[in-house]
Amino acid sequence: MAGGLVLFAAALHVATREVLVLAAVGIAASTIDDGVIDLIYLSIWLRRRALRMRSVPAANLPPGSSWMAIMVPAWDEAAVIAPMLRSLTTRLDYPKYRVFVGVYPNDPATLAAVRSVVDYRISPVICTRPGSTTKADCLNHIWRAVIAHEAEASIRFKAIVFHDAEDVVDRHELRVFDNLIPGLAMVQLPVIPLVDPGSRWISGHYLDEFAESHGKDIIVRGAIGAAVPSAGVACAIDRDVLAMIAGVTGTPFDPACMTEDYELGMKVAALGHRGALVRIPGFAGGRTVATHEHFPATFETAVKQKTRWLLGIALSGWDRIGWQGGLADRYMLLRDRKSIVTPLLTIFGYVAVAIVLVDAEVSMVVPAALRFDPLVAAQSPLAALLWLNTIALGWRLGLRASFTAATHGWREGLRAVPEQSSAMRSMRLPRRARCGATHASALGTKVRRGTRRHISSPCPPSDANHDGAPDASLARMRVAAAVVGDVPRPGDAVRLRRGGRGGGRRRKHGDRVDMDASAMDRGGKADRGSTSARIDASASSSLSKIRREREDAACSRQ
What we know:
This protein has helices at about 1-50, 80-90, 110-115, 135-155, 175-180, 205-225, 240-245, 260-270, 300-320, 325-335, 340-365, 380-410, 410-420, 425, 430-440, 515-520, 535-555, and strands spanning about 65-75, 95-105, 120-125, 155-160, 185-190, 190-195, 235-240, 275, 290-295, 495, 505-510. It has about 550 residues and is an alpha/beta fold. It has a domain at about 1-60 and about 190-230 and about 255-260 and about 285-450 and about 480-485 and about 510-558. It has a seven-stranded mixed β-sheet, with helices on both faces. A two-stranded parallel sheet has the order 6-9. Strands 10-11 form a two-stranded antiparallel sheet. α12 runs antiparallel to α13. The termini are far apart.
């Protein structure tokens, strides 16, 4: 009996070491990959600090003179679409635009809400098929309505802007788009989730996720020349480029696609055009021009949304996109699809820790086990890997907290650390189980039904009162200094403003030059205050309550 226990303890000890090695190697590989992105971003940040580069505030840009078309797909949005449209038309500081809202024939409440906003700039577009369909299908209907409006009104839109029914639009966004397009084929502004006081641990993790993604990851993608994916909102694309994507079929979006926004950026790059995430302050020293919106506040709705993202980007995207582009594009595609494996490595790491604890307990029961070699020798490669992973974990948590604090204030930054190990991680396993089942069932289908996001009506951040007319001398600059990682053509010249000196120097570019100081400042000094301080607390609380009630009702129906 004693011999059997010793044999069992020895076998468990060996197995524990092997599991620990596999977990440490897998996590270290993912850590090195993340470290590469961090180092690239750090080099960009240091370079910009050294050059003291500053971007032109959006308020100082020349006023727009080109037509803009805004697309808003809406299914079952009767409670939120009217406030969103009123907020949008009130806030936008731009003279020439039209808003096209896609609705469905079996959703009369949403259609009535759209028509209740009496504004000649708003046009409802009724889809031919009953809802819900995919968002891509609705956008195709809106696109055809945009083309028909051009012919009827004898105008031509310069760019197509995408928004959702819960978006809180920045007043300067169309002016930024007008100045950057067609120099860029696609312009993505940052998306900032709104704080939901009633769902700190579920909706709160979206704050952390978008703060780092739109503050670092997407910036690095553009800086190394990889395709920049669209976020689906706060995004504008050159009208002619979208027409090229539409081709002879007249449908720029595949109705079977679940993440049409992600693929849009890939299609733009495949045609040889550039897209970029742009961070530019609205006013000098002001907050970044961005779109604010609500995100799911309940566990089930968050899992459903994350499942759609993972399925569309990592699994379905693998089938649809493949490995197109150059080395930088393929590396970023690999990172996008790494999201399938990374949570499994995390779970495997937890399993390894549990087995180590069991091994320690067995060694206390079986005295002979105390004479076994230690699981981790002091100077072994495994010890080095474990130290690397531990240090990297602290670095990653600190980095996520710093980006979150820069956008939402230090309290949200501190909350980002436990959120990383609670809400976000707790939904990874169920969403991957859903992904596997959904992907397997979808392989033989042609059209996938859309998964609707249930949100509350927009609660806009207040705008500070700023005076000052646009500087006419900036008209020639075309806000070139607002693009992160811009790659001027050989021979182009860009004036670099030296902070605090008012002067500049002119230099030639044959290589990449990073031009947006506000991007490296992660939103500028004004953004280091709490975004939630700019939101009306009572209204936000009541709207969040409405949203949670809608989510609960939707989940019970499903």
